[in-house]
Amino acid sequence: MDREMQNSSLYISRGPEGSESGGIISKNLDDDGRPKRTGTWITASAHIITAVIGSGVLSLAWAIAQLGWVVGPLVLVVFSFITFFTSTLLADSYRSPDPITGNRNYTYMDAVRANLGGRKVQLCGLAQYVNLIGITVGYTITASISMVAVRRSNCFHKHGHAVKCQTSNNPYMIIFACIQIMLSQIPNFHKLSWLSILAAVMSFAYASIGLGLSLAKVIGGAHARTSLTGVTVGVDVSAQQKVWRTFQALGDIAFAYAYSTVLIEIQDTLKSSPPENKAMKRASFVGILTTTTFYILCGCLGYAAFGNDAPGNFLTGFGFYEPFVLIDIANVCIAIHLIGAYQVFCQPIFSFVESRCHRRWPDSKFITSEHAINIPFYGVYYLNLFRLVWRTLYVIVTAVLAMILPFFNDFLALLGAISFWPLTVYFPVEMYMARTKMPKFSFRWTSLKMLSWACLAVSLVSAAGSVEGLIQALKTYKPFKAQQ
């Protein structure tokens, strides 16, 4: 269908010079025959911030507590540099063979196919889409936890902290799914900028509240026990626990920066002037600099406030149920942010399935037909029945999985561990070396290989830590149990 659109647009654009129809259509189409892209480095930065600053920022105090004052902040900075460097390599892969004038690659798989080919395309697709599906399920769980936290904080405020205030996550997962069913009808990434900007604002809001509460706790005279090396063996944890928690903390920090799964899709929203790769590199710099600043502040101030006893979520940790109004606002902001982040990560899945179905059944009216609906205060919306049915089913399935597996975040950490190295480091590096025809065993080739192997080691140890956490979660697994 896209190819037919491209051919027809090229045919029309060859009309007589000054022709009204040819002029109007050529102005509204890009060089590939698709509707003109209007994204800028600002909207791309919003997409990146929405994808990167997830609810994981709330667990950074715990991660810093495992690593200590020296290694913790250092790891944050190192991974920010690694992510920015590999994102610049990936940005140059959007067009092939030339990064400025070459043909567009609409997805990560397309970029791998154009630069590497072979079985690596299937491996890339497997890593990318399994990770994206896992993230959407994990976000369903995390958003419901934030919604539940609002109800629990009000319950604690009214009845005191001694009350259990049991609340099931399931009704809130259903509410989240209903919202996503409506938002999933946004046709594509190009129409998602407003939602990403809103989500980015929400992420700043709840991170700022967390910073303020941590700072207030420190200024208020709280003397939490901290150390240069983090939790102390024999006092806080056993030697075995120290090792596993260190692995998990490294994984949490590494995966907190990963947005490579949607980088090419974000770049495909950018207008072609200035060149997409230059705008994307600027957006990556702004996005990663912003997120790193918040990560360091939240992680370090959270550790200073709670010390070696830092909870997994420092907004709902002990002592932060008051002032309950701020806690409510912060958790509402988290939920709104995750509503937008869910869409950022599921749009590539929607695009992949729908493009495959369009190519497989090009004559099916159920799949290809668009029905114009005039919506008040919006304008004309083009409804596609296949898009409505399949996206609704996808959201329902992710919600059901979240209800059945409330500890799915452990699975998500494992999926992230497996996908971090190939998607964030390996494929960008390999595509760069293939595109530049880099000589083997040259200094640059050796340096990039060493970087790739080091990140592979981090993925492996993080996966080991995630498996250990999953085993522990399974020991106490009780499906559909209300939160204590």
TrEMBL record:
GO (cellular component) term, any one: plasma membrane
Biased composition (Polar residues): 1-11
Transmembrane regions listed in the UniProt entry: 41-62, 69-91, 129-150, 194-216, 285-306, 326-350, 388-405, 411-429, 450-471
Pfam families xref list: Aa_trans (PF01490)
The UniProt record lists the keyword Transmembrane helix: yes
Residue stretches of biased makeup (Low complexity): 12-26
Alphabetic keyword roster: Amino-acid transport, Auxin signaling pathway, Cell membrane, Membrane, Symport, Transmembrane, Transmembrane helix, Transport
Cellular compartments annotated: Cell membrane; Endomembrane system
Purpose: Carrier protein involved in proton-driven auxin influx. Mediates the formation of auxin gradient from developing leaves (site of auxin biosynthesis) to tips by contributing to the loading of auxin in vascular tissues and facilitating acropetal (base to tip) auxin transport within inner tissues of the root apex, and basipetal (tip to base) auxin transport within outer tissues of the root apex. May be involved in lateral roots and nodules formation.
Source species, domain of life: Eukaryota
UniProt record similarity statement: Belongs to the amino acid/polyamine transporter 2 family. Amino acid/auxin permease (AAAP) (TC 2.A.18.1) subfamily. Belongs to the amino acid/polyamine transporter 2 family. Amino acid/auxin permease (AAAP) (TC 2.A.18.2) subfamily.
Protein's UniProt name: Amino acid transporter transmembrane domain-containing protein
Domain Amino acid transporter transmembrane span(s) in chain numbering: 37-471
Protein's organism: Populus trichocarpa
Membrane topology category: Multi-pass membrane protein
Main subcellular location: membrane
Biological process, per Gene Ontology: amino acid transmembrane transport; auxin-activated signaling pathway
A GO term, aspect molecular function: amino acid transmembrane transporter activity
Disordered: region residues: 1-32
PANTHER family: OS05G0424000 PROTEIN-RELATED
